Amino acid sequence: MSLPDSLFSASPPVTAPAGGAALGQVIGLSITAMIVTVVLMYIGWQHRTHRIEWFDRLGKRLGSRTGDPGWVTIPVLFVGSSLIVALLGFMWDVSLHAGRGRDAGPLANPAHYLILYGLFALFVAGMSAVVYPRDGEKPGIASVRITRQWFAPVSGIFIAGCGLYALIGFPLDDVWHRIFGQDVTLWGPTHLMLIGGAGLSTAGIILLNREAEFSTRQKGLEVPGWLRTATLSIGLGAMLIGLSVFQGEFDFGIAQFRMVLQPLLIVAAAGIPLIAARLYVGPGAAIAAAVFFLLMRGIISFIVTDVMGEAHHVFPLYLGSAVLVELLAFAPLRGRRVVDSPLWFGALGGLLIGTVGLVIEQLWIGRVFQFPWTQDMWAEGLAMAIPVAIASGLCGSLFALGLQGKLPARNICRTIVVASVVIIAVAVGNGLHATVPKGASASFALTQVGTPAFPEVTAKVTVSPANLIDKHPTWVQITAWQGGGPGVVTDRLHRTSQNTWESTKAMPIDGNWKTLLRVQDGRMLTAVPIYLPADAPLKVPEVPASASFTRAFGPESVILQRERKTDTPGWLWGAANMVVLLCSLAIILGISVAVTRVGRRIEEHEADLTKDRTPTLTS
């Protein structure tokens, strides 16, 4: 009996636009943003000129129990709501894209409304800290002079900068789509602006609370110890959440990068908040921060997956690393505890996180993630992760020391920060570098196991040349995603000989599903399409799934990101990425300046107090 050319009937093509939002939606969003901005500016002007007093009363009422000033309580209220809502919107958005494909427009995706609120509220939080002080009040110990009678907390300025940086990423994302096509990856440059601004703002809110402590002490008030510990642990747990969202593609099982990047991202996220928590807050704070991370991520995962029915995702635990950091604090070093030497503590803590912590994390990842860490990635993965973990730990130490007013010499601080940026950049660059084999192909024999209404197949795959894939590849799998239904379907293939593989479960091959064979082995990251639907906006035909066929291996990104344009000038792509890079470096510089300013002012304040307490000899 002869086999059919295609195992299913032709499906209607994808019709969602792929080159940016409709002009009407862009105009509508722009007008709305301008109206909201004007209203907020008007409220700020009214407050500063004493034409309204409700904004001042709101700040005082929120701080009536703790004694915190309004330039702290109002931003904390906005940041608390903005980050929770933005996180829910972000995870929902990634889930929608993974399960259902690209949007029909920004207003057609309900998750975008949550993200927009979260980012705008973040900007408002920072600006409320900036405009609230009036009548020459100097907020905090490191206030910045704006005009003769207007001073703002440096951390409030940084939070507003993070919010603006993230907000700019939203319209730029549409511009990016129009120039380069839609980059359906979490690591698109404008996407990194959105999540980077929100994630780094958590450091600003911790710094803002530190500045507020001096104001409350001047009033003779003191925040209860338990409340301070809980607040700071939650803040550092929020920082852990913010820094961990860069791992989203691994969490959803659709990583478009080599697996060696996952351990690097885990240790980079863990080092700063966990080390800072133990050094600045005290015993148990690292574990408390990790527990808060797990609680919030667990709730968000439940809402997105079980309540909304979208793509399932998992996340690292960080508990093992938190316990290691807590235990390290009791280790001896030169006759005293290692925690008493903060930079050593940060470096050794980072080393533990990048070694033992990753081994502990691997036990969890191997059980719940789509793809475990395999033998072939450990050597390179550790070579990348350990330096990054040490750098992250040292930055966590500097953050804690800045909050304590005990920063080391300026050249040491600069060296650590600059070296950390360079180390992370080199490691990420290495992780992103992948190769595609030339002259390699895969032959498929598909067996229909589904129904005419829902076609599914199992596959037997033969790769050529026979030695293309070594004995322990990172993955050889079939992935189907963006099919219009929730979820990403993956199948780790079973090896039957040196160059043959078989399915272990059925995979969809109809409708809007994009189904492909993916191979990662060392630096090789490549794929072969099995079935791709016709896409009218992209003007690309269907790639059918016949009963048997042979196709060449090619760059994985070309298949996963069909929407990307390939005809844009290389210089334009490089220039656009350079602009985003410079903006990102400006944010890193901003938090460095803010922490240094607060730390040096605290140091000077403590030195003045010591001088005042020193008895003088009189004749």
Explain what this protein looks like in three dimensions.
This protein is α+β, with helices and mostly antiparallel strands. It folds into three domains: 19-223 and 568-609; 224-407, no CATH class; 441-560, Sandwich (Immunoglobulin-like). Helices cover 56% and strands 11% of the residues. Strands 5, 6, 9, 10, 11 and 14 form a six-stranded antiparallel beta sheet that branches. A five-stranded antiparallel beta sheet has the order 8-7-12-13-15. It is globular. The model has no long low-confidence stretch (mean pLDDT 89).
Look at the helices and sheets and give the structural class. Answer: alpha+beta
Report mean pLDDT, rounded to a whole number.
89
So how many helices?
17
Q: How many DSSP-defined strands? A: 15
> How many domains is the backbone divided into?
3
Low-confidence segments, given as residue ranges, are none
Question: How many strands, which pairing sense, and closed or not: the largest β-sheet?
Answer: 6 strands, antiparallel
Helix fraction, binned, reads 55-70%
Tell me the Rg in angstroms. Answer: 27 Å
Strand content range: 5-15%
What global shape is seen?
A: globular
End-to-end span in angstroms?
117 Å
